[in-house]
Amino acid sequence: MIVAMAAYAGAAPYVLHRKPGWIYKPSWDLPLIIFSAVLVPFPFLVAWLAQLSGWMRPQQAIDLINITVAALIGGPHLFSTITFTLLDRNFVARRPWYTLSALALPVLVVYLGVFHYTLLITFFFSWASLHVLHQIIYLTDCYRARCAYAEEPWSRLLDYGLILTALYPIGLYKLSLRQFLVGGVVLPYPDFLFALHLPIVAGVLFGLCLIAWIVKTVREFRDHRGNVPKTLLISITTVVSFCLPLGSNLDVLFQGYNTWHSFQYLFLLWWINRLRDQRGEIDNPFVQRLVRRGGMGAYYLCFLAATGVMVILTMIVRAATHLAADQSYFIVVLSVLLVHYYFDHFLFTHPQMIE
């Protein structure tokens, strides 16, 4: 099958030289995948400075952050998903039902957005937090696949456990105080959950995972089997996830996480498509032209333009209906965003795409 696709697509006019143990090489992975975590506090700092200077009211600052992040990086990152799904005839042919099922998500979003808006926002935020962490897990799987040393299954489980638990001790506590405001909605925390003491349970699980992971990691490096990029990524993610909910403006703070996530994803998808092209796996001439260019400029601008179309659709929905501004925005955005989440569950379970 790959031979046939290569014959159809033609060989890529370049050879990619990679560094063992890294997704690409240290000079690419470190600034674009790992240390790009420096982007996380930017939305908060912009909102804080805007309010401190009196330039904007708090809600205006939040709206500016949401629009800027969505327009410049959030939108382009979610549209780039189509390069390995809807624009890949082989993907559609091999997974027709999986592909068709994605069409149900925009219908669900419109229904919930009009009649059960709070439920839609709660569903979105719950899935979004897991999606961000799933991407980190995928990246660790990529580094694991690129490493010369095989890991024990329990080592991988400890990595996963730490990634999945760091966000929730303080996050659930703030949620229980009903301090999470997203899309103009206070995320609900039903009264019956108080008896379960979920923030304490999450804190204990996180503490146990953290201690076990530190012991495991020290032992791996002592035995000269440590995975440097994976360890750096997990360490930074743990600090970001645990500390992020400490602030008061949770909507803006999580836009910081979204900025880092989207930035990682844009470059990751670009690199995956370059690898797919080199293996002769891209059968779409348009995607070929985008990824065979020397830089990412055309690739990014293409999906930035698609984001502009989404902005126009939001304005049309706002003008043609009686829906509030937040509802109009989230109905349009989540119709695309949840499809992006859905397809990424395929990508994030296939680390071999990066080998």
Description:
The structure is a single chain. With about 350 residues, this protein is an all-alpha fold. It is about 70% helix and about 0% strand. The protein is built from 16 helices and 2 strands. The chain has a two-stranded antiparallel ribbon with strand order 1-2. A hairpin with a 2-residue loop joins β1 and β2. α7 runs antiparallel to α16. The N terminus is likely disordered.
Task: Indicate the percent of residues in helices.
Answer: over 70%
Mean pLDDT across all amino acids: 86
Unreliable runs: 1-9
**If you compute it from the alpha carbons, what radius of gyration comes out, rounded to the nearest whole angstrom?**
21 Å
Coarse shape: globular
**N-end to C-end Cα span:** 18 Å
Beta-strand content estimate: under 5%
Order of helices and strands: HHHHHHHHHHEEHHHHHH
Q: Please, how many helices?
A: 16
Main β-sheet description: 2 strands, antiparallel
How many beta-strand elements? Answer: 2
- What is the SS-derived class? mainly alpha
The order of strands across the largest sheet is 1-2
Please give a handful of descriptors for the protein shown.
globular; mainly alpha; disordered N terminus; 355 residues; 16 helices
Task: List the topology elements.
Blueprint lengths: L1 H8 L16 H9 L7 H11 L5 H22 L9 H6 L1 H6 L2 H12 L1 H30 L6 H13 L2 H9 L4 E2 L2 E2 L11 H25 L5 H16 L6 H29 L6 H7 L5 H24 L4 H23 L8
Antiparallel strand pairs: 1-2
Helix pairs in contact: 2-12, 3-4, 3-13, 4-13, 4-15, 7-8, 7-16, 8-9, 8-12, 8-16, 9-11, 10-11, 15-16
